[in-house]
Amino acid sequence: MNIKIALLPGDGIGPEIMESAVGLIKSIADRYNLSISFSEQLVGGASIDEYGEPLTEQVLEECYDANAVLLGAVGGEKWENLEHQKKPEAGLLKLRKSLGLFANIRPAKIYPAFIDASSLKADVLSGTDFVVLRELTGGIYFGEPRGYDETHGWNTMSYTKDEVDRIVHMAFEMAKQRNGKLTSVDKANVLEVSQFWRSRVNEIKEKFPEITLQHMYVDNASMQIVRDPTQFDVIVTGNMFGDIVSDIAGMITGSLGMLPSASLGDQYALYEPVHGSAPDIAGKDMANPIAMLSSVAMMFNHSFQMTQAAEIIEKAIERSLEQGFRTQDIFSEGKELVSCTKMSEIILNNVEEIMNEEAIGVFTL
Ligand code: NAD
User: Fold this and answer.
1) Which of the following is catalytic: 65, 162, 219, 266?
2) pLDDT single digits (tens) 127-170
């Protein structure tokens, strides 16, 4: 298989964690006999410094031409006072929009070795494994009219049939590949736009008789995720509700340095950690590479249908945590504090070890 991956390391800790990601991809590629080429490009502040804008057309072209895009993080104090459209983060929004990434996926999965570090009790969390699918390009964040004057502020929450249908289809398909349960989150007791959303979900459900569907109001869903997160498999919701629900889901299962994400469209896919550029620790070899490496696992799973490779990466992360290694953001008494480089090396060694155990790339007659 020939694969081209666009690498956008960005700013702050972005380049450090991207280096770990590239090492991991190369090691998987070797064993699975993949031919992978990388196209490394500037984005965010790094691009502003070089070209005066956070995302150039040439970089966009490279992304259109790639099978997947891997992003580090963008932003930092140096560019904070630029006007909105010229900021590093504007480059990221333009990238998502240009690639038509309408669905954002965030897994909420608990690593057993890390269970005691969560703000929830171990017995509540044990067995948690669900994904939040958030609509990313519609809803109240984009709806018109919008504005404010001295006495009044207003936004519009609207969804078209096509916008709802494509993400809901994706959610049903995802539930089919997982444990067959879908929860659609809305506010249909108050909002007409949610009543419309719900009616579309019910109609699409007819094509997926094997999936168990439930509807849940967003306030209840937020409470239920904290009360009993094991009840969920796939959650699908609109842009603003998803923004909130995916942060709750993410944080119950770990620290910011461990949360991966995927943004998918009809043609393109982008994978990135949930966290930002962490300027406070940039250049100090202190970053936690797990969110980035876990995003690579999502890339193998969603873009290349290499479920086994994705599982090996996740197992290697879990094994490294079980062995007691921790970067500073997740460090606790009795564990071994390691740098970003060291943590990446340990995870990579575990990936190699697991591939040996599973005889990946070892052909016998
Ligand atoms: P942040 O996520 O960069 O950092 C928040 C805190 O978490 C910091 O203390 C940081 O050290 C820590 N942290 C984050 N990732 C870590 C990791 N992998 N390992 C260890 N510790 C980690 O959020 P912030 O400080 O609010 O924002 C910093 C910059 O990043 C801003 O310019 C912001 O706009 C930008 N940002 C970018 C993205 C993105 O590129 N997708 C997302 C969020 C924020």
Assistant:
1) 219
2) 999 999 999 989 998 899 999 999 999 999 999 999 999 999 99
The residue to mutate among 77, 101, 261, 275, having the most atoms of ligand 1 within 8 angstroms of its beta carbon, is: 275
Strands (E), 110-253: 129-135, 147-148, 153-154, 181-186, 212-217, 234-237
Nearest to 21 by CA among 258, 309, 289, 229: 289
Q: How far is the CA of 317 from the centre of ligand 1 (A)?
A: 21
pTM for the structure as a whole: 0.91
Residue 5 near residue 39 (C-beta atoms within 8 A): yes
- pLDDT tens by residue, 247-259: 899 888 777 899 9
* CATH code for the structural domain at 1-104+259-365: 3.40.718.10
CATH class of 119-252: alpha beta
Active site annotation includes 219: yes
Do 8 and 41 touch, CB atoms closer than 8 A? Answer: yes
